[in-house]
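Worked Example 4.2. Consider the chain below.
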Amino acid sequence: MWSRLREIFNTFAKYGLTHLLNRFGIRGSQKDQAQSLDEFQEGRLLKEALEELGPVFIKLGQFLSLRKDLLSESWRLPLMDLQDQSKPHPMEDVIETLEKEFKQPYQQWLCQLDPIPLGTASLGQVHLAKLSGGRKVAIKVKHVKNETIERDLEVLSFLSKQAEKRSQIAATFRLVDVFQEFSESLRQELDYKKEGEAMRKLDSDLTQEMVSIPSPIMKWTTEQCLTMEYVEGRKLSTVYVNHLGLETKKDMAQVLTTYHFQQIFIHGRFHADLHPGNLLYHRDKNKIFIIDFGNIGYLSPSVHDFLKRILMSLYDQDSYRLAKGISELPREGEMNFPLLHKDMDRWLNRYIDLPVQKLSLGEMFYDLFELVSTHRFEVPSALFVVGQSLLKLEYTIQTLDPELNLEQVIQPIGEELIKAEVENSSLSKHLRNWGGDMQHLFLRSPQHIHSIMKKVDEGSFQLKFGLKPEEKLVKRIEKMVNRVVLSVIMLSFSLMISSVFVGLTLSGNISSTHIERLGISMAVVVTTLLCVVIGNMWWRRN
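Applying the procedure from the previous section yields the following structure tokens:
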């Protein structure tokens, strides 16, 4: 690891970028030569340094180019130009990998293997081949050793931990979490078997007849090799697209946009790299084939629900609903909801007033995420992948139909979401459960009524009532009732004694001596009853 660290420091020093490491508390032995460059120029130098450091750092640069919350546009733009390409590896290495993975000579299952690759990337290369049965296939073979990848990931993990200890900036950006997230996404991309499974899942989601995904052949797929159906077509380069008919281009733009929106907002998994190089068009079949599924976005249920709220807020023009959805994101400190609502209202009005032809969903989402970050909410990284995928799609759409009416795309998907929301809402579930209970009650009612009437006729029908309130409430009610009862008893006895005395005095049939004795007796009785009541209250209380 230490030799690799020295290599990284030397490469950054070569391009005059060690001051970037210094900002994060990481200091090497090399120092930059004095120079005055703006951020964009430094971004270009950083791009060249990452390309020189190899596949993991190229992938890191591409990953950081998506993170508008971490880097300014001046830094991100140069990183977006990072080419995920490398020189082809020797054919001997390809054959060695195939035979090691399938534990047999490649000729036993392949009758042809083209030595010239169809395409080469930083992690692997693709070759045309034929299975022993004669079927044409494309085989993607990884040419980067896992040990090399894990070594660089270990170095990045070490550097991020050191940076968080030494730099407040690094701690604020949570660099350890950022690099952990990058490591997980890269490891997923390294597993070609998972890529094949993702292709099958995305194929099962397809509803657009014009879009097709090559079928993976899982029997001949491992973590190091991916065998798939070979598809023919031309990449949607600007030169080729210019030769297509206007209606064809419009149809392609409409279909691709609808497909991508359905994947994001309906299914929650999507191809995150729909640039023209990953799209092949077969003119005779009128089919668009999507290739290269190394970059797949997966949305957790919470993030997927959040994105659906955003789309529905646009559909309904409801800024309050949007603010309520954002308020459920994790954040630091207390929230100022009125200010959040005001900002969301301003953001919504800004884009609603734009003509749909000028509406850039990628930029719109990025602006939203940046605004959410200013309120100190933690924006899930998956949302930046969504924003970047939309920007790449828009670049493709610009070459096909720059006048595409996005309203025609959003409206049917919004209606589909509303339908799904009604069908799957908790209210709908409660209503279905209530309907089932009512049906059961209706069917059993004659039997219950017959049983009740029989008990009434036999004289055995009884009604029982019971209350089980909280203990504290019981004590409060009991104390209040006791006071009321005591007051009523005292008032009743006072009225009764007064009535007796008045009656006896007016009748004149009893002497004053007897009246005095009677009064004393009544006083003793009242005092005794009062003591009994008070004693009973005290006993209950204790």
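The longest strand covers residues 124-131. The CA atoms of residues 336 and 375 lie 8 Å apart. Compare this with Example 4.1 before moving on.
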